[in-house]
Amino acid sequence: MTATIFTSVDASAKRSWLNLFGWAMALGVLAWAWQGTEMNPGALVANAGNMAELAGDFFPPAFGNLDRYIDQMLVTIQIAIWGTLLAIVLAIPCSLLSSENLVPWWVYQPMRRLMDACRAINELVFAMLFVVAVGLGPFAGTLALFVHTTGVLAKLFSEAVEASEAGPMEGIRVTGAGRMEEIVFGLIPQVLPLWISVSLYRFESNIRSATVLGMVGGGGIGVALWETMRGFQYAETATIMLVIIIAVTVLDMLSQTVRKRFI
Amino acid sequence: MSSVTIAVQRLSKTFGQTRVLENVGFDIHAGEMVALIGPSGSGKSTLLRHLVGLTTANRKADSHIRVMGRDIQRSGRLLRGSRTQRCRCGYIFQQFNLVGRLSVLTNVLVGRLGSMPRWRALLGRFSDEERAQARQALARVGLAELAEQRANTLSGGQMQRVAIARVLMQDADIILADEPIASLDPRSAREVMDILQRINREDGRTVLVSLHQVDYARRYCPRAIALKQGRLYYDGRTEGLTEARLQALYENAGFDESRQSAVPVTARVALGAAS
């Protein structure tokens, strides 16, 4: 009896000590990162005048070139559409080949590392590389989105595959159907709703990403954004930002309504 | 007599340290309806899974499984063509294993995938004739009017009947059923067993069904094979399963087991009253 009480007191003391240590660690990390980022809230107050002046330059927005900006925004959306679509097409086989319930480790390990690499490097970096390869313009941007998004979607798709039930696939297998039929009839119906939802979400975020691809020569509205900012034409920049905000909001809403139908 | 359609010889299977099957062997003749009984963990499911090559036997043992005159596995290696062989062998699971988001009709049509041309199978282009056959199969299990519904809207008993329709669509000569009624209520269980019996009698299909409850074995199957701790304990006419033998079969089994099977008096009374 007494022995158990002692051990339980011991255990709870140990747990609270561990708890304390965990908090100390967390605070330590925060302090360390604060230092690294050169956080300086005072600068916000000290330079308030500068910021007010800069903000003032954005108003009133200049709507003279609105047509051009809307055209550029449409190109941006077109980049996102093809970048995402190509990525979905390639991510399907890649995700199946990186799912541990479908293929042996010597297939899924290399495939996963390849997808990690696609994901690890930002779209902007890929865009710079593709500008060198295929020249300035929206095609380079589309390819950049395509490669990066393939890495992202393959991971998310394969997570859905690994969370699927084995039973339905086994049910198809015992009828004598082949491996491909097993996937098409036993697996895809299970994961399709999630795949659609994830793809649409990725389309939304690709529109946001595509708005800056132009800064490195990847085409779309980013080109105009970069030019007006470098030329200190902030009234024009304000118009571009408005166009981006409206377009992104509308497409987010559209894609969400579509997404809701699949969940 | 009629020809041997399932032949199992010297089958042993070990999972890690656990010996699940030990030197099991038996023959089943075409057209028989055989019950496979035994307490939980006696190896019934593992045995059935071996017959379609979902599981392979121990490599070292000199095991051999033949189904309908063709080798499925020998010494723990699946043999070439065992996949096409599955087309001739229907399998029914305790958990039904339907594809919930597909329609009932598609779940039945899937039974034909293995014997269709590859491109039609992959695109799911079933012919009108195949669709008509699938509807016929559904009618035989009494679910013709549910063809267009999604499979996950059905009750357990209905799902199991769809699984049987899938086997009918396969045109399988042998039907292996792994605890097909274990998760069903008594009425659905009787319906499912009645359908299996009808397929056995009217179409002459061989049926091997593993059962939790001895009473169902007695009612539906002339022959029973019993496993105890992975070994063949009994193989013969179901009437030969005397109370003493059942006691011995289920001794040391869990409470659930003994209540359902080793003391079958109450269960049998309930069944008799309901039918």
Quick synopsis:
The complex is a heterodimer of chains A (263) and B (275). Chain A has 263 residues and is mainly alpha-helical.
What is the overall shape of chain A? Answer: globular
CATH topology of the largest domain in chain A: MetI-like fold
What share of the residues of chain B lie within helices? 25-40%
Spatial arrangement of strands, main beta sheet of chain B? 7-8-9-3-10-11
Radius of gyration of chain B: 19 Å
Report the end-to-end length of chain B measured between terminal Cα atoms: 34 Å
The number of distinct β-strands of chain A equals 0
Subcellular location (chain B): Cell inner membrane
Membrane topology (chain B): Peripheral membrane protein
GO molecular function, one term (chain B): ATP binding
Domain ABC transporter (chain B): 6-254
Task: Give structural notes.
The complex is a heterodimer of chains A (263) and B (275). Chain A has 263 residues and is mostly helical. Chain A has 11 helices and no strands. Chain A has helices at 2-36, 41-46, 48-57, 66-96, 105-120, 123-134, 138-162, 166-173, 179-213, 222-230, 234-260. Chain A is globular. The N and C termini of chain A lie far apart (54 Å). The model of chain A has no long low-confidence stretch (mean pLDDT 89). Chain B has 275 residues and is an alpha/beta fold. Chain B has one domain (4-274): Rossmann fold, CATH 3.40.50.300. Helix content of chain B is 37%, strand content 24%. Chain B contains 11 helices and 11 strands. In chain B, the strands form 2 sheets. In chain B, strands 7-8-9-3-10-11 form a 6-stranded mixed β-sheet, sandwiched between helices. In chain B, strands 2-1-4-5-6 form a 5-stranded antiparallel β-sheet, covered by helices on one side. The two termini of chain B are 34 Å apart. Chain B: It is found in: Cell inner membrane.
